[in-house]
Amino acid sequence: MNVLLLSMPDYFEHMPPVAVRMPNGALTSLAGNVDDHHRVAVADLILSYRQVRETLNRLFYEFDPEVVGLSVMTFQRQTAQRIIDLARALKPGVKIVVGGYDPSLAPDAYERMWVDYIVRGEGEVTFRELLRALERGGGFESICGLSRREGKRWLHTPARPVHRLEDDEIRPPNRGARVLQGYTLLGRQVDVVETSRGCTYDCSFCSIIEMRGRNFHTYSFERVLRDIRDARDRGARTIFLVDDNITLNVRRFEQLCHAIIKASLNTLDYFVQAMTSSIASHGETLAPLMRRAGFRYVFLGIENILEGDLEFLRAAAKNTARDNGTNSGNATLKAIECLHRNRMYVVGGLIVGNPDDTQESIEANLAFARRYVDWPYIQHPTPYPRTPMTEHFRERGLITNERLEEYDGTTAVVRTEHLPAEEIEYLRWKAERWMKVRHMPAAFWHDPWFVVRHAPEMLAHTFRGCTLRSVLGLEDDRKAFGRYKLIRRQERVYI
Ligand code: B12
Ligand code: SF4
Fold it and tell me: Which residue's CA is the nearest one to ligand 1's atom 49?
């Protein structure tokens, strides 16, 4: 069968496509796990976000898919709906399958769309079995994790247990299936690699627990190294390790760094997400090793610097440093200091606008980011389907915006008990632009040619809505913010 797999073109504030166009790891993993006789094409639509319609027209013409699969996050739901409508118009009989976080956690929304199948949870085996059932013309009822339309009804099979990655049930990704080009992280070709899945924490804003429960499974290093080599041989110079929480097992992470060094794969740049507690508690040995292995940017899930907020986010435990098993206070500063000492950059993940936040508490977090982090990744709490946080915000009547396309993390869609949503977003927007500018020299030293060529575009993105007058303080910043909001609204129409 001809199978076309699509990721959505929607991007968010901290990932402007001029600088960051990252592949979707789910699609190549699905492509690597279907039976060999299928012809699979993977199209990451971020690579043609300004020509989505034209690209789909061309792909349908050239590839003539019998099955189309879409990977969707919640803020991309509206775009997914439009792509589904276009696919139906281009080929009415095509089978449409949706998967990923949004269809898995809000399947009812997709039952109302014109799709045929919803794959819930991990998709490799479910999708492989679905293609087999489509070829056979039956047997759907025995496929776990599948919802299917039958006449006017939707039928759901039981959830599929999470995969044990240790026993090689999941085959390596198939990057050869990609049909679009142009992946980049600041001018270097980027690829994604998984070394593990899952997490045993339960932060209230995170979708992972409802998606797969609290567990942690790992791929063998042999497989991970083969995967990194495959990405490198296809041109990647930067690798994003997309594990949910690679620092859950620090000993394993250290061994992975050793393995990368031993395999001479430390000539690549690595980007990873980490918990502050692991870095703070094990940084003396872990951080130098990470640096030697090629780690350059570390996304730290700081979440918030205030105890009350950390409690609301259920993120206090993962931000607590431990010395010999005893609690030794907040881990954030120690982790940042450790990474900086080892010449790594900190991407600071903070969440501001929690229910009891005041202007002062938000300003305190922004001031912290200004002082300590190299690249701010500040977000607002966003009520994604079935997260514990969503319930809290709903119960307290704080959700002010139900337009899901704006659930991109940098649009404030909830208010606090003290501040309106728009004011919270304004505070973040106003502070964050300048923090980003500050990182440009570091980016320049690493990728001078890229920065020279793209600086005007990058600055134009960061300062959308501003004019010379507003930058010089001759115009109220709120006017610039209003223009920014308008531009952002227009950007969200991809098709
Ligand atoms: C790595 C990652 C990123 C990376 C890379 C994204 C990329 N291009 O791959 C970065 C940092 C860029 C990123 C950014 C964002 N992310 Co993100 N990210 C993740 C993370 C950590 C892992 C995702 C991953 O690659 N997993 C590995 C793959 C193999 O697994 P998978 O995606 O789950 O896919 C499996 C199944 O879902 C299913 N499946 C998926 N698609 C499809 C399609 C079909 C047809 C089928 C059959 C099956 C299927 O099968 C796959 C294989 O088993 C998750 C989860 C987490 N713990 O936080 C969040 C997560 C996916 N991100 C999330 C969000 C919200 C975002 C942002 C909007 C804001 C933010 N929080 O940073 C931005 C938007 C990005 C953009 N487009 O501009 C949310 C999504 C919530 C939701 N309900 O939509 C998550 C769940 C985190 C959370 N807050 O809970 N993200
Ligand atoms: S530690 Fe990270 S992956 Fe784990 S629940 Fe919290 S935010 Fe999600």
Answer: 99
